[in-house]
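in:
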C-alpha cells in the first residue's frame, strides 16, 4: 500500500473507536505494537520493514492531526503511540562493540518509531547501518506532521536481554543484517532472571527502571504510560483450576516492576499510567492458548469461558485501595 494512500484516507479513526467502545474516548493510542507489524519474515526483508514502518508513522501522525483538530479541545483528551521495548545490556562488560550493539538495539526497536515523533528524523544509527536508500526520508511537510505527534508515549515492557555485536551479511539486505546484533538470555551460563512460561520472557524488573531513565534523557522526558507489563505461565493441563489460580510469582513480578517505576518517578520520569497484561487469560500470538497472562483464570474447556480471580487479582484489588502500603514503594 502506498504512503499517499495510507495518509490521505478519509476515514475518521476517533469516530470509529467511539463507535466500537460505545462512548467518547479520552485517551487514545493511534498505533500500537508497531515493530510487530513490519518485521514479518514474508516479502522483501531488506526494504518492506522500513516502508511499512514509514507508513505506520505517517498514518499515526495523520490520526493525531485529526484528533487534535476535531476532538482534543472539547474532550480534554490525550493521544499517543505505543511501542514495545525490552532493556538491553552488553553481553560482555567493557566491550565497546557490545555496548554499541545495545544502543543500536534500542534504536532499531524503540527509536525507529519514537525518534521521528520526537525529533522528526530516524535515529542516526539506522541511517548509518541501513545501506543504500532503503530507509525512507521524511519530506519537509511530513516532518512538520510527524514531529510532536504525541501527548504520551506508550511503552510495553516485559523483559531484558543481553546483546552481542555480530558481523552482518552486507551482501544480503535484511533487517537483521542491518541491525547485526545477537540476543541472549544468559551470560556465562547464568540466566538474566527467572524464566516465565514463554521462552523469550525472563523476569528482570530492574530493566524497566533503566528504560525509563533512558527515555527521559534521550527523548526530552515525555509523558509515559506503561501500556503493557505482565507475566505468563504455561497452561498446564495437569493443574486444577484451584492450583492454577495460585500465582505468587505474578504478584511479585508486578510488585517489583511497580517499585522500580516508583524509583524512576522519584528521579523525575513522567510515568502517568500503568496497565497490566492481562486482565484475563487470552489467545496469545504464536502460543495460542498454551500460556496464561491473565490475573483472571479463564476456563476454555467448559464452553462458557467461566472466569475465576487468581490471587494476583486479589492483590491488585488491595493495591488499588492502598498502593503505598501494599508495594512498600513509599521510600
Amino acid at each position: 500500500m502506498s504512503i499517499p494512500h495510507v495518509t490521505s484516507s478519509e476515514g475518521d479513526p476517533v469516530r470509529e473507536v467511539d463507535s466500537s467502545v460505545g462512548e467518547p474516548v479520552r485517551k487514545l493510542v493511534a498505533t500500537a505494537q508497531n515493530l510487530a507489524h513490519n518485521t514479518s519474515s514474508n516479502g522483501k526483508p531488506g526494504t518492506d520493514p522500513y516502508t511499512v514502518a514509514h507508513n505506520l508513522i505517517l498514518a499515526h501522525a495523520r490520526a493525531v492531526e485529526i484528533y487534535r483538530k476535531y476532538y482534543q479541545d472539547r474532550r480534554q483528551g490525550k493521544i499517543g503511540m505505543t511501542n514495545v521495548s525490552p532493556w538491553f545490556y552488553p553481553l560482555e562488560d567493557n566491550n565497546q562493540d557490545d555496548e554499541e550493539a545495545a544502543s543500536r538495539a534500542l534504536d532499531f526497536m524503540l527509536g525507529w518509531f519514537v525518534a521521528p515523533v520526537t525529533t522528526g528524523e530516524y535515529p542516526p544509527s539506522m541511517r548509518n547501518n541501513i545501506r543504500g536508500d532503503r530507509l525512507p526520508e521524511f519530506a519537509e511537510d511530513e516532518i512538520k506532521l510527524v514531529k510532536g505527534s504525541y501527548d504520551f508515549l506508550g511503552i510495553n515492557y516485559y523483559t531484558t536481554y543481553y546483546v552481542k555485536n555480530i558481523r552482518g551479511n552486507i551482501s544480503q539486505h535484511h533487517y537483521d543484517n542491518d541491525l547485526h546484533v545477537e540476543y541472549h538470555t544468559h551470560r556465562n551460563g547464568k540466566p538474566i532472571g527467572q524464566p516465565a512460561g514463554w521462552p523469550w520472557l525472563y523476569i528482570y524488573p530492574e530493566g524497566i527502571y533503566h528504560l525509563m531513565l533512558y527515555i527521559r534523557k534521550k527523548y526530552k522526558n515525555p509523558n509515559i504510560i506503561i501500556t503493557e507489563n505482565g507475566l505468563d505461565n504455561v497452561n498446564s493441563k495437569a493443574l486444577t483450576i484451584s492450583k492454577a489460580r495460585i500465582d505468587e510469582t505474578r504478584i511479585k513480578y508486578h510488585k517489583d516492576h511497580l517499585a522500580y517505576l516508583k524509583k524512576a518517578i522519584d528521579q523525575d520520569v513522567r510515568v502517568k499510567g500503568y496497565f497490566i497484561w492481562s486482565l484475563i487469560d487470552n489467545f496469545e500470538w504464536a502460543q495460542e492458548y498454551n500460556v496464561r497472562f491473565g490475573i483472571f483464570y479463564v476456563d476454555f474447556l467448559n464452553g462458557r469461558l467461566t472466569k475465576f480471580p487468581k490471587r494476583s487479582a486479589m492483590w491488585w484489588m488491595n493495591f488499588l485501595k492502598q498502593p503505598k502500603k501494599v508495594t512498600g514503594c513509599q521510600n
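note: Residues 1-6 have pLDDT under 50 and may be disordered.
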